[in-house]
Amino acid sequence: MTTSDQSIAPSPVQGIPARPPAADVPPGPAAPVRPRSGGSRLRALDGLRLVAALMVAAYHYGGRDGEVTQAWGSSPRHQFPTLHSFFAYGCLGVQVFFVISGFVICMSGWGRPLRSFFASRASRLLPAYWAAIILVTAVFALPVVAYRAVSPSDALLNLTLLQQPLGVDRVLGVCWTLWAEIRFYALFALCIVLPGANRRRVILFCACWTLAAAIAQGAHEPLLNLVLMPEYAPFFIGGIGLYLVHRDRRDAYAWGIVGVSWLIGQHYAVVRLWHGPHAPGFSYRSAFGIVLVVTLGFLAVAAIGLGLLAWANWRWLTVAGALTYPFYLVHEHLGWVVIHALHQGLGIPSYGTFLLTVAAMLLLAWLLNRFVEERLTPKLRAALNRPRPV
Prior knowledge:
The chain contains 16 helices and no strands. The protein is an all-alpha fold. Helix 5 crosses helix 12. The N and C termini lie far apart (45 Å).
């Protein structure tokens, strides 16, 4: 872990490094929000997920260097002389995503048997992910595209979602967040879902994970860091704490979990994302700005959990939540291709290209949701949920 802005170093054209920079891409997905028993759907949480995804898209398109510089023809610093400094904070959408994920996974896993939990997670992740792997590999293999695809062997391995620990080139830059999500799912399944969720067990899980992650950080033990994810744990744990607040706003232990998680989380965000204004690259972020964005993320999820945004109950927010995951999967790499075609090919100005690229990726996300997720997710969930003889 370094204190420099790791996003300033471009990835090699042949592939993307097996160990990505923190917060360089959008985080892994949480399912569209499920209502708690007897409650209404938290549509505002769906909307917040799309806001976080658009933050990260702004970062990838206009808040960093790397391959996107090749797409624009120059650094985004010159394409967006005013907004690039704001776009640089978009990477913190990752932290917001992880808080949302902690909230949603605790809500969706409460009272659910292990087989159902596994089926829900796998059917949520895999169909759109497989489609995105195939789509990005195919597009990058086209002769007119300047970015080279990974090797066929590595592309096939990417279908397993294990490319990150196995250290091979990634088809999707965003898959590091999926690897973080999978480890969170595994911890939550083993410690909460398998024995059965209840308030006491969830509080103990949050306390033990927080302490163990701090010990792992202090011990500098790679295996413990891999399992316990000290730099991401406070955001997942904070989301779990906010779900406990959602269940009982007077729960002092839940508020304590949220407070400690925010304190630790803002520290890791500053350590990993701050660098001096004269460091290479342009994505200078002040420590105050980083803390502010992290704080606003926690406050937004808290406001939703406390019911303060219950008025935001529009149906289109459900659609927004459904588009977030496929948008997150495809927006970065295919965005490079669209930016190059619109800006350098057609001569469309930077701001027009930016908006049209976001619109194109949202349209592609809708197509993936409509023709891949809606068709395959229920079938995969049913197949994985089907009882089998021992």
